Amino acid sequence: MKHAxxxxxxxxxxxxxxYKSGKMFYVALSVFLxxxxxxxxxxxxxxxxxxxxxxxxxxxxxxxxxxxxVFFIGISHAxxxxxxxxxxxxxxxxxxxxxxxxxxxxxxxxxGAIHPIIDMGRPDRILNVILYGRYQSPLLWDMxxxxxxxxASSLYLFLPMIPDIAMMRxxxxxxxxxxxxxxxxxxxxxxxxxxxxxxxxIMMVMVVPIAVSVHTVISYLFxxxxxxxxxxxxxxxxxxxxxxxxxxxxxxxxxxxxxxxYHLEAYLKEIHFKHLGTILLVMSxxxxxxxxxxxxxxxxxxxxxxxxxxxxxxxxxxxLFFWGMVALNFVIPILLLSFKKDIKGIFIASICxxxxxxxxxxxxxxxxxxxxxxxxxxxxxxxxxxEIGLFVGGIALFCMGxxxxxxxxxxxxxxxxxxxxxxxxxxxNDRLRSYLPDKK
Amino acid sequence: xxxxxxxxxxxxxxxxxxxxxxxxxxxFTAFIIYIINLSNALEDKPSIAIGVSxxxxxxxxxxxxxxxxxxxxxxxxxxxxxx
Lengths: 440, 83
What we know:
The complex is a heterodimer.
Chain A: H1 16-19, H2 23-49, H3 64-75, H4 80-88, H5 98-120, H6 126-132, H7 138-158, H8 162-171, H9 176-182, H10 190-223, H11 235-261, H12 270-299, H13 304-314, H14 319-339, H15 343-370, H16 385-408, H17 414-435
Chain B: H1 2-41, H2 47-82
């Protein structure tokens, strides 16, 4: 029996989600749509009833929504940054990984950027930022950095998609009009290839500092205040490391799921997981180092306000979350990634890290706020159903975004895989020879 | 005739991302200039806004230019081959 995507040759499996999607696609889409729809209902309810439906109350004015904001923006570092670094360093194993990562960035950035608006209670308050904004506020730095990063990530996702879109326009049977528009007249001529390569190189170089700046600026939201355990000089690199750490973990989870659901075993091989697992192990050690430094420098001077928050985390009401974070981000991943470095072990470690990094955001934000320095009682914070529902809705939106992307575009960079097959092996050979001493 | 019309519509739609990207770049530039003017008028310190503008505006304009370069380059690349 002939299938619509048979003329894509040996890579036809990469086009299966577009040309062979069955009932399961609609079932999954309906489930995610229902969850996201319920989250929209919860938000509308919050809009009418006010922030009273959340657990926010003096002195805890930032919590679940801001935790999720930092968490989602952190995950966005998985994509564009990792993809750009792998492309710049000419890591040959990058080919099936880059697009999987880039899609995460764009979807998650959009979801993350919504959270401060949800946290405002009234979305019209965003107008105040535009009409009366002051660049002395790190909030406005954040807005600028995220807008720039979103634009950079979208372009960096779109440019390498053009040759694949053109392939679908020429060989595919569905959505031809859409691909004709998006392919921008690409025909694979040497001049056109040169243009795409040149533009991608410029974007690769630009994306790295932009991505680093985004989480640096997010850390400044906290570090620029004089709240205990927020006012820290290492917060910027600590946040950047945490972002890459959580981003890589989510990338690995997504890769495992895509491999299983779309039968991409021939493309997303164990070696790709092992390489990314090594990055994850290094990031886990770096995260442990930063966490140790952060807490040691707080503990050593014994400043009373700082110590109050410190003990909240170590032995107080947040002890379970704190030690859970240490176990999930450091102890379990290091054991798994050192001794059980197969796909299953890496997948379990990635799930642990994703949960652990969410806990890290919670541990950073909430305990510093419940401890009051004015003579007010110590605060307490428990999230409500609305806040949890909106978080679950965010995850459903992410899954839905990915599912819809897979319905229209290949999840792996097809031309890059083909290029690797046709030219990569010779190029790597030549490069390797250039590293070695010349024969006399 | 019908083909000519379809091609025209496709060309217009293809130009859409360029319009969006330049709108964001120019919109943000206008916003930053407005913030600098506002801080001047209120005798606030515009130095930080100027500092941010020195980084953000060139970045946004470069990205918009890269996309425009790709758009024009792909069209030109195709025409050359057709000739």
